[in-house]
């Protein structure tokens, strides 16, 4: 597996990196624009609408405020143990695992696109494909 973000790369370079990896037998977990989109999907049913990556940190921190946590978006971007535990917890209102919800939401968004140019598929992520594969090795509950 290779994991990367669109960030400021040109559309051509982003698509080329994906195609090169896939043609070499390497699976790809990309996020367009940034990995934080995957984190947001644990909490929100986003619809793949375009979202500037510079806004991700504030949006995550707005969510984390009710847990008395902060995500250091502008510096280290480290996910603390407490934040990780929240990501791995159940959503108390929906009664489903947050990871399962993120997988479901990412999959629905991904399925809306034709994948001819992943660079144009903003906002989306394929991190859910990696997480689903990891779940098979870790025997985690992957039900949604």
Distance between the termini: 24 Å
**What average pLDDT do the residues reach?**
94
Percentage of residues in DSSP E strands: 5-15%
Task: Name the helicity range.
Answer: 40-55%
Based on DSSP secondary structure assignment, what is the total number of beta strands? 5
Which class of secondary structure composition applies to the elements?
alpha+beta
Q: Assign an overall shape.
A: globular
Number of discrete helical segments: 6
Strand order of the largest sheet: 1-2-5
Order of helices and strands: EHEHHHEEHEH
List low-confidence stretches.
Answer: none
Radius of gyration equals: 15 Å
Largest sheet report: 3 strands, mixed
The gist of it:
The protein has six helices and five strands, in the order βαβαααββαβα.
Overview of this structure, please?
There is one protein chain. The protein is α+β, with helices and mostly antiparallel strands. Helices cover 42% and strands 10% of the residues. The protein has six helices and five strands, in the order βαβαααββαβα.
Q: Can you lay out the helices and strands and say which pair or pack?
A:
Blueprint: E1 2-5, H1 11-23, E2 28-32, H2 36-40, H3 56-64, H4 81-87, E3 90-91, E4 96-97, H5 98-111, E5 124-125, H6 127-138
Parallel strand pairs: 1-2
Antiparallel strand pairs: 2-5, 3-4
What brief labels describe this structure?
single chain; three-stranded mixed sheet; globular; alpha+beta; 144 residues
């Amino acid at each position: 597996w290779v994991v990367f973000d669109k960030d400021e790369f040109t559309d051509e370079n982003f698509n080329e990196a994906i195609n090169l990896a896939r043609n070499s037998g390497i699976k790809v977990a990309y996020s367009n624009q940034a990995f934080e989109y995957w984190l947001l999907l644990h909490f929100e049913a986003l619809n793949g609408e375009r979202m500037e990556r510079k806004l991700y940190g504030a949006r995550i921190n707005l969510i984390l405020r009710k847990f008395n946590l902060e995500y250091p978006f502008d510096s280290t971007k480290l996910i603390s143990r407490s934040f990780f535990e929240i990501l791995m917890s159940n959503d108390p209102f929906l009664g489903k695992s947050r990871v399962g919800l993120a997988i479901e939401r990412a999959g629905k968004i991904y399925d809306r696109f034709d994948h001819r140019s992943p660079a144009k598929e903003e906002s989306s992520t394929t991190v859910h494909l990696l997480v689903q594969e990891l779940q098979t090795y870790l025997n985690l509950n992957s039900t949604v």
